[in-house]
Queue: 3 jobs
Job 1
Amino acid sequence: MDFQLDEEIELLKRNVRDFVQAEVEAVAKQIEEEDKIPEHIVEMSKELGLFGLSIPEEYGGLGIGMVGKCALYEEIGATHNGFTTLIGAHTGIGTVGIVEMGNEEQKKKYLPAMARGEKIGAFALTEPSAGSNATNLKTTAIKKGEKYILNGTKHYITNATVADVFTVMAVTDASKGSKGITSFIVEKDFPGFRVGAVEKKMGLKGSHSAEIILEDCEVPAENILGEEGQGYVNALKILANGRAGLAARNLGSCQKLLDLSVQYAKERIQFDVPIIEHQAVAHMLAEMAMEIEALRSFTYRVAWMVDQGMKVVKEAAMLKLYGSEVYNRVADKAVQIHGGIGYISDYPIERFYRDARITRIYEGTSEIQKNIIARQLQKEYGQ
């Protein structure tokens, strides 16, 4: 396994780091207070090509492999997680379905504008009755002529308020269970589509999640993504594909927290010495550094496996689980090292602590990842 980045990726990585640390970090507090990502940050992200991270070069994207994507995601993760989520949800679960399962006409129609950031992508699977039990969908799709009529409600849909193109899962044949679910490409301007209530969240300010409501929503038959009845399989593939990228974003946040914690521990004086000289603090920093390095190795190994076309169902679930849990442990230690300041909203530590919590829930809870891992082990070792 060779994780050496080529010169082009290294240059991109430096450019993204400079942008994130100079521009996004400068408005991080503003994002938190206004719950909005400034338009100039979005425009600069488009110019850097960040919205085209997962899109092949022939459709206007960066056309880089998973190792390269993770290198950039790591830099994107080292700042306000609301910004990170806007980019990550678009380039991950928001576009991967069309890239991996779309036909040529669909790719030509949607991907160039999505690569430029002119159209934002979102993924609509979750419903009030279908969270971890993703096959319990109530949204239906009934074919009428050359269209499908969709009815139902999705919720907790990231990017819903800004997205133009949604990958929507709906039931086309209830009698077939998971094999009766189909995925559709749904545009926000289709008749019968509207965005519902916007969720008020604990964290991820600037990134908005909302309901989407489908009331006799008319979707052309040509907008089926993949084959009818393959929607659940598509959803699993889309989620699995995004897990290395999600872990890389968590990794970037962890590294930022370690950087801030070491800096603070060297500057903060208690009992006449910097607190880094107190063993209790030094050991917390050592544990953070160890887990971050393990996460880095694991992230790039799984990314390399994806680039090699290897099956990564088990490894991707392990990585999603480990990355989420490490981020939460690192954030907790960062608050502890900073003490009272770590709890004050004028400083970024408490923001990362709040933002970390969702990573154990979204795109498959930690418990669901353990289920996936256990099922794969059963297959490997025989029933």
Job 2
Amino acid sequence: MNNYNWNYPTTLWVGNHRIKDLSLACANLNVKNPLFVTDKDLVNLQMVKEIISENKKKFKNFTIFSNFSGNPVGENVDDGVIEFKKNNCDGVIAFGGGSGIDVGKAIAFMSVQNRPIWDFEDIGDYWKRANDVNIAPIIAVPTTAGTGSETGRASAIINKQTGIKKIIFHPKFLPSIVILDPILTKNLSPRLTGATGMDALAHNLEAFCAPGFHPMADGIAIEGMKLIKRSLLKAVKDGNDLNARLDLLVAASMGSTAFQKGLGAIHSLSHPLNAQFNLHHGLSNAIFMPYVLTFNRKFIEEKIISICDGLGLTKNFDNFLKWILDLRQELEIPHKLSDVIDIEKINLDELSIMALNDPSTSSNPQKLTINDMKIMYQNSISGKLI
């Protein structure tokens, strides 16, 4: 496999063993005292221990912060900022899945702010409140192929006080250098490979279906979906297929690049459940996908038909939907929300309000109401596709 250096939407170093260039990435950004941010599950893996050990030899100070896990909360970011400042760090290496990269980006950003992180929620021009001088450089290294946080300008962080997942946005959240090394993803379980791959599919699909004129985002989203269709099942069946692993890494990065156009109800419905029940984001996106597609059908059918040829599908909305349903089944994704959550613990009215207020709702192909959200939740519980 060849190595590649790309410069869109940021600098990306792509290929096998590119993780060996981590110290070079730091040197290029004049980072001499990095904070290595990864979650508590990853930090003890042998692969990660070796990366840390190798880089500790190359830096006078190489600080590790791993006091968080999936679906991070604001306090995790606060703790990371304390570690960053205490050790006089001058850059962040955000290493891991979406959670690790989101926390790393937020730490770099918040290290120079004097307002709470919630003041920078992705609402209107809230991002202009930020001090954008001397935000620490960020190097992102994804170990899953799903969120695409490495090419995103936001982090998803839960406000523990309200139980709501917030999207924190600033243009300088975009990492300066991204390392896409498929070898780092080859030990992902088939289950996680499937769930994160469906997350990447949700990003590309919702970006494509979002209303508005953005041909660049549409083109990226279409190519992202093609890569996922080509390689997701291959990677699930053979984790050592590095070509398939690379396709998925690139598709994930493409998804987060494309969704600057917008997302939709798949994400709106997912975020409240990720926050309240710690449900894996890719899994919840995969569960909600067909229910949102059918609910939005009148508004997206023509667009969906237009991409069927490129995906090797007969030009028909039902054939596209069948591909999604068959893919979920092959990946052993539960068909119903009730298969993964105790429905007795769900307050549908509360969840529907949270979903409606989610930032992703505004770019759904059709305007939604609280009742629409409730109907989609109910359909996902019963398994009813309308």
Job 3
Amino acid sequence: MTADNPLQKQRLRVAVLARIFSTSAGGAERYCASLAKHLAPHHEIHVFAQDIRTEYPQVVFHQVPLFCRRPRWLNQIAFAFYTWWKTRNGFDVVHSHENTWHGDVQTIHVLPFSYLWFVNRHGWGLFLKYLQLLISPRLLTYWVLEKLRMRHQQGRFLVAVSEPVKTVLNIALHHKLEHIRLIPPGIDATHTHSSAEKMQARLDLGLPMQGKCLLWVGNNATKKGLPTLLEALAQLPKDIFLVIVGSASPENKWRSQVAALGLEDRIYFKGVLDDMTLAYTAADLLVHPTLEDTFGMVVLEAMAHAVPAIVSADQYCGISADLNHLKNAWILQDPLDTNALKDAIEKSLESNNHEAMSQQAIAWAGTQDWHNLALAQEALYHDVVRQKA
């Protein structure tokens, strides 16, 4: 962002709402944190969060009380009321990453509840869904908050993190395209790693020096396709091993399946890593057979480290809408197809395919720069200010 950039005529005071602010949590949290970091040198950024795990010197942080851990829907209501009260005056733009009714900019990180709950329901099926909704305080809360969040309003914009999400917002929720912007996640830089760096990363993580290293990252093992990956791994040569990173995949939970498949000496559980660089450096291939991901930030991050990726098709994972099968990634049409996943891993690890995909992956990742994406977000903020004037 240069000094003569026309978007910087006005330094804005922006409130950012996110229950968790962290660079080591899920993709949505990392998106929010990275965007705030890139906007802070040019605007007055105030973050309102309940769990602040990452801090930047140019960002002002406001601790939001954690009203209750359970039920979550009650805490969501309390978070919405508290942040509405604190940001109702004094800010040029309120940017929400949460299910709140206020916020000039609403970044949508998950598929809308209304879409998942009601689309393709008819007759008695639709009636029963409405009945289930009306008798559940939890479901009713999420539905009402979402309705308020996504309603048409002058000076309000929805931000989709991927093209499939934009399509859902446009068609299923009948939003006009001019009120929807596409601003996907980005990266700060690309990285290549030497053979020596790869070996050192494996040593630091306690991994074998020999063999091919598969990497799986996620906080919801079932949704991110870990069971299918374990079944595929059992059919692959024994010199291929798997590193599992994430908070929702404790070793005890999967020990029985791992033992039944005879994979005890080929699985490495690493839990949550504050810095994923070691994992990407050690890996030969990212495997992401997710069943539901609005974007898939881990795929972009791996590609930025020249790690080829196997990823579910765009009806399952948003980033795939921008990828080219067999060029910069391997696109899985059915993430539950164990044999297809096995074949994809084998072919992706073949030396010629692997080298070509690695080069194309890092080249594409280099086009997804946070600098340009922050400019797009900044332009949207100025659109909000103009429409509210």
